[in-house]
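Severity: low
Component: inverse-folding endpoint
Summary: output formatting inconsistent between runs
Steps to reproduce: submit the following structure tokens with default settings.
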């Protein structure tokens, strides 16, 4: 098959979608498929160009390590605000549409088009490209859209501008009307509009069973779960020691979080939990490795509370093993927004792959996975007191840090080979069914 993927995120950027498509792309290419990717020049998460190599510049075409042919679109630099990121996503998506029509018409037409969300503007643009090329479209929803919009009141800025000017895939008049909408009206309009766009896709790929069920209940018939994954052989970690040199019989409990430091992760609650645990006499250190929109806020919160927290910049995938080896338990955290119950963070799969104990401040499907894998503890999301108490109990009895069954669960339910097979089958069904 000839597959055309539109996505806002790609290597050499570091992040969950980039990692997901690294192994999906390699798997599809190894099966003999041609994969072309329309994606911006690398600029995530800081909003500035990460690498000045000509191969990565806007307009460049180059084959990457996965075997896919990467077509780089332009981007708009941004700062910390949501509106700047939304404008960037719209510009990149629009340029992707331009390049798609210029480069993939005639004898170069793909068999199927994939639009990977977020960024949200990728969805209407992928539908527009599929319509113009007369090819079916698969909408890949890596988060619970549009349900996550119900939590927009918690965001620093309204999401009203996200679909503005994304008119190619929208019903006539929506793009022109958006500037006149009030914040409340725009937010109220977006969920049904996103659902309408999802229904226009020939198929929808999601990452969790619970969100797939929600979409089927909304009348979407062709929905397939393509989970995130990780490879257990990536790390060979020693068991957490019962004691450490110089600990006076009270070893420090080491907690690590690796990943995006954004709004959805709600890490301020974990920082507060670390501070509470220390006040109760627990020797504990929380290490946060990553960056994102909330990094400055989390750092300021830790300083204000005097919490035993250290923050480090993101690291390449090859370097995460050292942080997992340092840790006794891995923190997986989400907000308590309703949509988060249908979300499984990609880092949970990576944590399962390590065999390390997991501290889950989550509910819904993510909590169910940790429990069924017997991989660690679960407390309600955004409950610092419950998390502090759980860490205090772990510090008092380190036998709870014994190796989990996470690797076995991962092999049975989310191994990469099976996920690539599922995606390939879905694309073949859409393209030729």
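Observed output (run 2 of 3):
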């Amino acid at each position: 098959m000839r597959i055309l993927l539109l996505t806002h995120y790609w290597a050499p950027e570091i992040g969950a979608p980039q990692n997901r498509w690294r192994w999906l792309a390699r798997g599809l290419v190894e099966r003999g498929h041609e994969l072309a990717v329309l994606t911006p020049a690398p600029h995530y998460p800081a909003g500035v160009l990460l690498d000045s190599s000509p191969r990565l510049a806007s307009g460049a075409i180059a084959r990457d390590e996965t075997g896919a042919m990467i077509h780089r679109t332009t981007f708009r630099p941004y700062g910390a605000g949501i509106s700047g990121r939304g404008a960037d996503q719209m510009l990149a998506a629009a340029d992707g549409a331009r390049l798609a029509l210029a480069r993939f018409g005639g004898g170069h037409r793909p068999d199927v088009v994939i639009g990977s969300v977020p960024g949200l503007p990728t969805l209407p643009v992928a539908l527009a490209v599929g319509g113009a090329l007369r090819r079916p479209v698969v909408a890949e929803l890596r988060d619970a859209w549009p349900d996550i919009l119900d939590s927009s009141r918690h965001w620093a800025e309204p999401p009203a501008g996200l679909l503005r000017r994304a008119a190619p895939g929208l019903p006539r008049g929506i793009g022109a009307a958006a500037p006149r909408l009030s914040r409340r009206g725009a937010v109220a309009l977006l969920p049904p509009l996103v659902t309408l766009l999802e229904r226009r896709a020939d198929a929808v790929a999601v990452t969790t069973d619970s969100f797939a069920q929600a979409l089927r209940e909304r009348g979407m018939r062709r929905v397939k779960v393509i989970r995130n994954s990780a490879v257990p052989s990536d790390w060979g970690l020693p068991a957490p020691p019962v004691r450490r040199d110089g600990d006076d019989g009270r070893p420090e409990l080491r907690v690590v979080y690796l990943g995006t430091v954004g709004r959805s992760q709600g890490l301020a609650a974990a920082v507060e939990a670390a501070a509470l645990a220390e006040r109760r006499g627990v020797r504990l250190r929380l290490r946060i490795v990553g960056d994102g929109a909330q990094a400055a806020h989390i750092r300021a919160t830790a300083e204000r509370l005097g919490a035993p927290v250290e923050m480090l910049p993101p690291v390449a995938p090859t370097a995460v093993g050292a942080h997992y080896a340092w840790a006794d338990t891995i923190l997986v955290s989400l907000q308590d927004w309703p949509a988060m119950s249908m979300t499984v963070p990609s880092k949970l799969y990576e944590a399962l792959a390590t065999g390390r104990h997991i501290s889950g401040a989550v509910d819904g499907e993510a909590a169910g996975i940790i429990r069924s894998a017997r991989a660690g503890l679960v407390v309600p999301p955004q409950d610092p007191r419950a998390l502090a108490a759980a860490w205090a109990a772990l510090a008092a009895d380190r036998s709870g840090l014994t190796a989990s069954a996470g690797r076995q669960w991962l092999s049975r339910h989310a191994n990469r080979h099976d996920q690539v097979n599922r995606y390939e089958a879905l694309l073949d069904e859409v393209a030729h069914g």
